[in-house]
Amino acid sequence: MKVWMPLVAALLALAPSLHAQEKLVVQGYSADQTQHAVEEIVQPASGRQIARWDRTVCSQFIGFPAGVEENFQTHLTERFAKYGVHLRANCRIPRLFILATVHEDDLISHILDRDPYLMQGLDTSPVFNDNIRLPSPRVKKALQESYPVRWFADVGIEDTYHMPMHVGPTLMAPAYVHEPLMTSFLGSQTVETIKYMAVTVDLSKMDGVSWPSLYEYVSMIALTNPALKDYDTTESILGSFVQKKQPQQGSFSMTNLDDAIVHQVYSLDPAEDGRSETQKITWDVTASLHH
Prior knowledge:
The protein is of the alpha/beta class.
């Protein structure tokens, strides 16, 4: 009895706090949420790999106020460095363009009319001789829809020594003379890299949007080159910052799930098949967020 009375008294003392804890909400990500977010963000084409930056990225900002441009550059530099990608400014040949405009529809139309290959072949170096693919109808359709931020990238296929596949002219359009299989029993033979990317920001649609939120949103875009579409996952900044083609007011940043996905994208072998790599990203992110 002497033992039980103090124990009962202790439990009674704890009862209010135990009752209060019933209202605690633990925010996390279920395995299904994680899988859905990964599959939304990481979308390699069938038979392809996951494209990512593989060397120093030079950025150029156009149309932003001077102070904003400096802060934007600093933010992106820090974000890229977190995942092992070196970003710098004032390069002879920029690779990441971020353009601010109040006439985004006109700008996109002009780009599509003037450069149907969407910046491919911008550099005349033989390293870029494989840049001859027209954007898919899905990409062109998405670019023509009125998103507040739009993006497109030049993704090139190279062998594991970073030499492009050979191309030659045909009656219809340039075509690959030889494009080896992505994998063989000897191992992967090619990698896909982001060579150039352009991001356009429509400032006329940014009322109430904070600059830091935009920096974070563009960081996620620039690092992963996701498909331009409506995202229904609120676990990623992609689905929270823009909803129904409208930017949302408030403070947004890359989520823990975003961070885990980007970390895995830049940690895995870039020569792996994209579909199997997407599954591996899902497993690794789920494990890292649920340990």
